Amino acid sequence: MSYRNGIIETIGNTPLIKLKRASEETGCTILGKAEFMNPGQSVKDRAALFIIRDALNAGSLNPGGTVVEGTAGNTGIGLTLVGNALGLKTVIVIPETQSDEKKQMLRLAGAELIEVPAVPYKNANNYVKYSGRLAEELARTEPNGAIWANQFDNVANRQGHIETTAQEIWRDLDGKVDGFICAVGTGGTLAGVSMGLKEHNPDIVIGLADPMGAALYNFYKHGELKAEGSSITEGIGQGRITANLEGAQIDEAYQIPDAEALPVVFDLLSEEGLCLGGSSGINVAGAIRLAKELGPGHTIVTVLCDYGTRYQSRLFNPEFLREKGLPVPAWLDHAEAAAP
Ligand code: PMP
């Protein structure tokens, strides 16, 4: 008999999927870790579980307590699903610019959702700082207490990737991995996988795939936190060195414009049946760049972060793409024309 004891046991152990076109184009084996197959359909289920488990173990979070977090959506979905399974409440603060699909999922799952204007981190009303203040207040007023998940600076986030994501990659490839690359939101995935893999083999090349509008490419390349341009991708693009990123070794960095990443997302769906969000496009485009740098014959892993239906009204909406001056694939235009 084989079964999982609740959704918590279904988080992680996601398969590595060989990406056909990216592999053919580069002569490398490019593998995507299918994080969209987690129960909350994103990589953030891992961080959510580790943050909640860590707080419960430390005694800072009690049964019936409340978890407060500022999130672009995916961490909130993970926290809410794990929270439901463990009898916890969730209060989620989200910038109003995030996709409606993520907000609807949060409401459906039972989170209390607070939408705030999207303002930079240095502003006191930024969603992250807002959620921290709210957590302090609720810790005083909620009968069973409250905690701030604080995914950016709570290293239980990257610990999840050190203990699970990195070990799964190493195990599934029998250690035959040459490179790993992904984008940064909190940095939990990139730093955690870097630390976990380098403990096995320090020669594995770790790459950052940075969207436009983020400051980390310039930091890792030139030592200066400097951003330029913008991106329609959600959940990634960092302007500072979070606690999760501190001490992690990053060997290569690439800046990936949307015009390079979005065709990758569209082709993965239309040619390989992989329905993914925009950050996965940045990641796979980054893996292609790293593969070209390392040369043919290498094995490179990246992350397929979340499921594409979460962005149907944006990334897969010809009108939205045209508004942003981005190319619309012919098949997507056709789908619109054929709709009743
Ligand atoms: N892609 C998506 C869609 C995300 O929501 C996130 C997390 N915000 C990431 C990538 C980046 O993951 P991390 O926070 O581990 O850097």
UniProtKB/TrEMBL annotation:
Top-level lineage group: Bacteria
Domain Tryptophan synthase beta chain-like PALP: from-to ranges: 9-306
Keyword rRNA-binding in annotation: no
Pathway linked to the protein: Amino-acid biosynthesis
PROSITE patterns in the record: CYS_SYNTHASE
Residues making up the signal peptide according to the UniProt record: none
GO MF, one example: transferase activity, transferring alkyl or aryl (other than methyl) groups
An example Gene Ontology biological process: cysteine biosynthetic process from serine
Keywords noted in UniProt: Amino-acid biosynthesis, Pyridoxal phosphate, Transferase, Transit peptide
Cofactor(s) for this UniProt protein: pyridoxal 5'-phosphate
UniProt key word Transit peptide: yes
Protein name, entry field: Cysteine synthase
Naturally occurring in which organism (per UniProt): Methyloceanibacter superfactus
